[in-house]
Amino acid sequence: MMSMNLYQDIIKTIKSTKLWQCQDVLEKKYPTISGLTLGSVLSNYIQKTMRMNHGKHNNPARIEALYQKYNRAVEAHEETGIILRISDDIRITPVLVAKFILEAYINENHAIKMKEALEEETDPEGGFESADSDSRKTLVLRENSRNLRPLTRNELKAEISKYLRDTASIPDRTLAYEVYMCTVHDDNYGPFPDAIKRTIGKEYEVRLSKLLQDQGILYLEEDQLRKQGYDKTPDIKLEVPIAINGKVITWIESKATFGDEETHQGYVKDQLTSYYNRFGPGLVIYWLGYVETILASQSKGIFVCDHLPASITKYDPTMS
User: Fold this and answer.
1) Within the chain, what is the greatest distance between any pair of CA atoms?
2) Alpha helices by DSSP H, 58-190
3) What is the dihedral of CA 113, 117, 119, 123, to 10 degrees?
4) Which residues are CB-contacts of 121 (< 8 A; sequence separation ≥ 6)?
5) CA–CA separation, 149 and 136 (whole Å)
6) Which residues does 266 contact at the CB level (< 8 Å), separation at least 6?
7) What phi, psi does 314 have (nearest 5°)?
8) Phi, psi at residue 89, to the nearest 5°?
9) What DSSP character marks residue 2?
10) Dihedral of CA 161/164/168/173: which sign?
11) pLDDT level of residue 318 (50, 70, 90 thresholds)
12) Residues 51-82 pLDDT 10s
């Protein structure tokens, strides 16, 4: 459990530091706090900030302005790290800025291909003089059909995702390296941080299962509950309720994150309240800690902890 004063001091440090340098700065300033906890506090802050700032930049005019700013920097032969510096200027995480610039780059290149395809469409006989010209013409026109229209939003997103996963596939070598630097320096946004978070989340779910098994507690996991027809399910549904610190528990939710006020209230609204309504009282475990003020505003039947308490009272049928 973290005091509000310490939490606020960490947020103050984040606000005064370049986003892509925050993790290192936090770990040096708060050596007694685990790097995972600091990274989770930082990640939560960035997610909230991105939600607030994303709409401001996610429009065609603003994306084009960012792209032109990037191009001017390239033409001026500025040193490597152009997108990182733009990220610092607008306080948007580097990979998200890279996504904006990739979107403009892809649209620009596709517009050129559209123009070429339309010119070829107006002269379909050009360049086909051999006996098999009809089949060759059909093949070329089929290949060009995608270039005769603007990209759909899904096609654009797929292209951006492909370039982020494999920056070496970006045709522009300068842009490829700039985007690569963003993926290396951004610990909180993009395909690699997302994969790491999923892995850590699974690791803590396995840890929770092992702890319950060691105590001989019977339970059903999320996959088993879904097979029974439940749509919204906690990670663990106890087959027989237990008592923790005198509180009856029927389900457990594992969160491999830090629980700040906004994050917790979001989970209460989107997940935990429905678990309580369906299964009864339960426990949410924030394995990376939580801010102390959450305890004062706990919702009815939803209890908070940062570990699975060792003192568990199991139901004894002989006492009934």
Assistant:
1) 93
2) 60-75, 82-90, 94-122, 133-144, 153-165, 173-185
3) 160
4) 141, 144, 148
5) 21
6) none
7) -95, 155
8) -65, -40
9) B
10) positive
11) low
12) 877 777 888 999 999 999 999 999 999 999 99
The pair of structure tokens assigned to 315 is 């139901």
Helix (H) or strand (E) holding 283: strand 282-286
Q: pLDDT per residue over 8-40, tens digit each?
A: 999 999 999 988 899 999 999 999 999 999 999
Domains of the chain: 58-187 (no CATH), 193-319 (3.40.1350)
Please give the radius of gyration of the chain, using alpha carbons only, rounded to the nearest integer: 26
pLDDT, tens only, 171-216? 999 999 999 999 999 988 877 888 888 999 999 999 999 999 999 9
Q: Using the 8-state DSSP alphabet, how is residue 300 labeled?
A: T
Label residues 21-47 b or e (16+ Cβ within 10 Å = b).
ebbebbeeebeebeeebbbbbbbbbbe
AA identity, residue 68: Q
On whether the pTM is more than 0.90, the answer is no
Angle between the 191-214 and 153-165 helix axes, to the nearest 10 degrees? 80
* The residue type at 317: P
Q: Which residue has the tokens 């925050």?
A: 22
- Give the amino acid at 192: F
What is the spatial distance between Cα 231 and Cα 100, in angstroms, rounded to a whole number?
35
**DSSP conformation letters of 213-265:** HHTT--EEEHHHHHHTT-SS--SEEEEEEEEETTEEEEEEEEE-S-B-HHHHH
Residue 4, pLDDT > 90, answer yes
What would the two tokens of residue 275 be? 């678990």
Tokens at 76, concatenated:
């001026």
